[in-house]
Design goal:
rod-shaped, five-stranded antiparallel β-sheet, alpha+beta, 19 strands, 682 residues
């Protein structure tokens, strides 16, 4: 029986090889292939039963258990069922006492194979030798158990007779046949995998968004894909290969191409990744990034060249670079924050303006610049505006790192993504501190110009009156002196006095106009000489005392304050007398009673301080700073009541400054005025 089982198993192994050859021609995963596999396994099983060993009448043994176990293992459910049905039909046809035992053996063998297939996740080719042998043992133990279906005690008797040759031969046959099928299955899967890989490679080449070109070492083009034809604007492979290389490159890129080609020819290293500019069929210039590598193509090493058109990306990169440079070199401060208001970027102008470096403010809020001089409502309105996606414009009064306050004009807007959600806020700010100062200065200058224009108009009107008044008096009294010969000597003397007084007034007006003109044109020269200060002040006292008497203001007491020791100083006596005289005249004009005092207040080694004080009407605080301006008096009503050109104090201030000194005043309405000025001793 040993020899018969071995011969039967050998035949089955040979027949199983046929199964492997036939199954290669069809796809294992299709329903049709599974049916064909079932028929093949069933046919092999029938062939095995035709060469069976007949133990008793109707009781036969063969290698069907090997074939059917492997059909369940390698073929799966459909293949196993078909092969089992074919084998069972044939065994039923043979009939005899062993038909039930034989049929049971057929179905248990398929079930064992299928069970081992499921245990290995439908991948029978992965079963190792011990597992295949174990499966053979299990299958044939089941076969022996099926012999108990024989009539009477024949089953037990037969099991005792055949179990040794069966368990020694048939599991080994299962192992050998299983190894052959597993090896063939692995080879088939490897071939399919390779075929699929090649197909995928070709497909990936054909459908790749990158341009692909296969080139021989001597420069012959073997293959180009659709993407490369599209990049160049060609319609087919032939059009590409028939277009001369000179027409496919720009002049500069062609020159670089020839240089690379020459280097390769000389064995020099050439970077496999580089950029070129190509000329499309329609004349467009495209920027291309190229990568060269060696691959196996049709079992031969060839060059694969990958082309990527990055024209649009380069434009975008150039634009981003331009925008980046514009931001970095912007003459205004740029601040970018996230939606929570945390600073993520500041440009160099921000650092220049605020004194804060980028590392000091990134991660912080813009409130670091707040001066505290703008209300909370101001910032609430700002956030309310930009959170609605609207643009905010306004001015900040901020504080620099060094504590200095400055003004900024700002525009803040939101940056939104494709979904319309705010991702960032961008703030463009310009330091307008100097501009504000210029505007303020211009406004002040405008106001001063308007005021000066008004004062000039008032001055001209007043000047007309001031000149006409003494001139009319001079002309009137002169006519009276010449026309009326009967005037007494006393009356004539009075008329002469009036004429002289008005002539002096007219002369003073003319002198003031000439002096202010000379001061404007720089024609006034200070000639310093040593003077006896006490004598000079006494002379001024006598002159002004006489003038008070002539104006009829005998109720005003004139006082002179001088030191009780000789004082000499180096100055221009004429201009000094003019300064003091103008100040005394000013006090005399606006003082109706009380006293006027002048003289020396303080003497140091470098300077002497003088004063002129009165108990007159005083000057308002609001106009004290402007009282030394030209054509300016305390008020327009002052001009109407007291007359004058408004040039006296302006002349005094200009002369004192020209002589190296300074003048200032103290005054209250109704409590008089004190003018103080100092001059250098030398």
């Amino acid at each position: 029986m040993f020899n018969d089982l071995i011969q039967n198993s050998s035949l089955l192994i040979a027949l199983s090889v046929l199964y492997g050859i036939l199954t290669r021609t069809c796809k294992a995963d299709t329903f049709g292939c599974k049916i064909i596999g079932g028929i093949l396994f069933g046919t092999i099983t029938v062939a095995a039963m035709k060469m069976s060993i007949q133990y008793n009448t109707g009781v036969i043994y063969d290698g069907r258990s090997i074939v059917l176990t492997l059909s369940g293992l390698f073929g799966g459910g459909i293949t196993g069922i078909i092969s089992a049905l074919i084998a069972a039909a044939y065994r039923t046809y043979l009939g005899g006492a062993g038909v039930w035992a034989g049929t049971a053996t057929i179905f248990t063998s398929v079930l064992v194979g299928f069970a081992f297939r499921r245990l290995h996740y439908n991948k029978p080719e992965l079963l190792k030798i011990p597992m295949l042998f174990g499966m053979g043992v299990v299958s044939h133990l089941c076969m022996l158990a099926c012999q108990l279906l024989l009539p009477g005690s024949a089953g037990v008797h037969i099991i005792e007779e055949i179990w040794i040759p069966v368990m020694l031969v048939l599991p080994l046959g299962t192992l050998l046949m299983g190894l052959l099928l597993a090896t063939d299955k692995k080879r088939l899967l490897a071939e399919k995998s390779l075929r699929r890989s090649e197909e995928n490679f070709r497909r990936s080449m054909d459908e790749s968004p990158l341009g692909m070109r296969i080139l021989t070492s001597n420069g012959q083009t073997l293959y180009v894909n659709k993407a490369l034809l599209s990049i160049y604007g060609f319609s087919c492979f032939e059009e590409f290969t028939q277009t001369r290389v000179e027409k496919r490159y720009t002049e500069e890129s062609l020159k670089l191409h020839e240089q690379r080609k020459e280097k390769r020819k000389n064995g020099e290293y050439v970077d496999p990744e580089y950029e070129i500019d190509i000329v499309r069929k329609d004349g467009q210039i495209r920027h291309i990034q190229v990568l060269r590598k060696t691959i196996n193509w049709d079992d031969t090493p060839q060059l694969q060249i990958i082309y990527q058109d990055f024209t649009e990306r380069k434009k975008a990169e150039d634009l981003l670079l331009l925008l980046g440079r514009s931001t970095e070199q912007s003459p205004v401060s740029i601040v970018i924050t996230n939606p929570r208001g945390t600073i993520e970027y500041v440009n160099p102008k921000f650092t220049e303006t605020t004194g804060y470096g980028a590392e000091e403010v990134i991660g912080k809020k813009p409130g670091i610049l707040k001066s505290g001089e703008q209300p909370k409502e101001f910032y609430d309105n700002l956030w309310k505006t930009i959170r609605r996606g609207k643009e905010w414009r306004g001015e900040f009064h901020n504080r620099k790192k060094n504590g200095e306050l400055y003004w900024e004009s700002a525009v803040i807007s939101s940056i939104v993504n494709k979904s319309g959600n705010i991702t960032h806020y961008i703030e463009a700010k310009e330091d307008i501190t100097e501009k504000k100062m210029i505007i303020a200065d211009l406004k002040m200058s405008k106001e001063k110009a308007e005021e000066s224009d008004r004062l000039k108009s008032a001055f001209l009107a007043n000047m007309s009156h001031e000149i006409r008044t003494p001139l009319n008096s001079i002309l009137g009294f002169s006519d009276m002196l010449t026309e009326d010969s009967e005037l007494s000597q006393e009356v004539k003397e009075e008329y002469f006095s009036i004429i002289n007084r008005n002539a002096d007034n007219l002369l003073q007006i003319i002198d003031d106009i000439l002096d202010i003109s000379k001061l404007d044109t720089g024609q006034v020269k200070i000639i310093k000489r040593p003077i006896d200060l006490l004598q000079t002040l006494n002379e001024l006292f006598v002159q002004f005392q006489r003038k008070i008497s002539e104006t009829g203001k005998e109720n005003i007491v004139l006082k002179l304050k001088i030191p009780d020791f000789p004082v000499s100083m180096n100055t221009d006596k004429v201009r000094f007398n003019q300064i003091v005289s103008n100040l005394l005249s000013n006090s005399g004009k606006f003082t109706h009673h009380g006293e006027i005092e002048f003289g020396v207040m303080e003497i140091t080694e470098q300077q002497i301080t003088f004063f002129v004080s009165d108990t007159g009407i005083g000057i308002e605080k609001a106009v004290q700073s402007a009282i030394f301006e030209r054509f300016r008096q305390a008020t327009d009503s002052t001009t109407r009541l007291y007359g004058g050109t408004g040039l006296g104090l302006a002349i005094v201030k200009n002369l004192i400054e020209l002589m190296g000194g300074e003048i200032y005043l103290e005054s209250e309405i109704g409590n008089g005025t004190t003018f103080k000025f100092w001059l250098p001793i030398k």
